[in-house]
Design brief:
About 40% of the residues lie in helices and about 25% in strands. Strand 1 and strand 2 form a beta hairpin. By secondary structure, the protein is of the alpha+beta class.
């Protein structure tokens, strides 16, 4: 599952694309960008591909955003070996990306609480530090029987 959020740092917008593995609730792909072009979504897919070696039958779920519907991203999915199928939320379905939205809400709340407002570089470092050591290895999930995704 993937979605995009924005972070305002030093008066500038930074966009964060995240790919979550819904089976174990871990973050497997991510990319930062200063614009909303489709390239950063493809970059997040490449990071996820590096972190996980997918088997055939994998489905990539997202909302119907233009970055996910565009030819560049669809070509990147089909170029994978094995190819990755694509699934999107129905039009008007507010719950289609609820898990990704929940991840972003938690990420922003915990980053603000721990660090306060920061410079752009510190914000990106905080997000990356949150992603791997905390979210994937220590943060418990009730859906996983009160275990961390890495467990």
């Amino acid at each position: 599952m993937s979605d995009i959020t924005y972070l305002k740092t030093d008066g500038e917008w930074q966009y964060l694309t995240v790919i979550l593995d819904l089976w174990d609730r871990s973050v497997i792909g991510w990319a930062f960008s200063e614009d909303m072009e489709a390239g950063h979504v493809r970059d997040a897919l490449m990071t996820a591909r590096t972190n996980r070696k997918p088997k055939s039958g994998l489905l990539f779920h997202s909302d119907r955003g233009v970055r996910y519907c565009g030819k560049e991203f669809r070509d990147a999915l089909s170029a994978r070996r094995p190819p990755v199928g694509q699934r999107m939320s129905r039009k008007g379905n507010r719950r289609g990306n609820a898990r990704a939205e929940r991840f972003f809400k938690t990420l922003k709340a915990e980053a603000d609480k721990a660090e306060g407002r920061q410079t752009k570089e510190k914000e990106m470092v905080a997000v990356c530090e949150y992603r791997e050591p905390y979210h994937n290895k220590r943060r418990i999930s009730t859906a996983l029987g009160y275990a961390a995704p890495a467990a």
